[in-house]
Amino acid sequence: MNMDNLHRLLTFLILLLVQVLVFNHIQLFHCATPLLYVYLVLHFRRSYPKYAILLWSFFLGLAVDIFANTPGVAAGSMTFIALIQPYVMQLFIPRDAAEDFSPSIRTMGFQSFLSYSMVIVFIYCLLFFTLESFSFFNWLQWLTCICGSFFITMIFLMAIENLDKKHHQE
Prior knowledge:
By secondary structure, this protein is an all-alpha fold. The protein has helices at 3-21, 39-42, 50-68, 73-92, 105-108, 110-133, 139-169.
């Protein structure tokens, strides 16, 4: 197992534990839950095999589903954003970027990484809460959950990304 996969496995386990033990118990205003495990999908480098991105994402989503009692919701949503991640990343990186380009604030700049993250996280929240409610009967609650979770997830993601950026600068 190479260092990249070992680092990714450690990130997988930490995100899973933090989500299951801490963030699944946070519900601001009964609608906003931080969905921090999306962080794993954001950081796959450009040359990473697409099937591997799908597998990592599916298994993280499945593990979250098992512990959160949301049968298939996180797994389906994570798999979908894993499917679109390489294409969304292409929209925000320079055309002449290296094949092993890894998205982060350091490599993309704040604005590009923020935009890239916002697209991925918004699509994730939209899909997750649509699958979870499986109805548009209470559309105001659905919309509130999507927007609240999107904003709180983005705040946590940017905080972690800024901490990681400072860590790499030292």
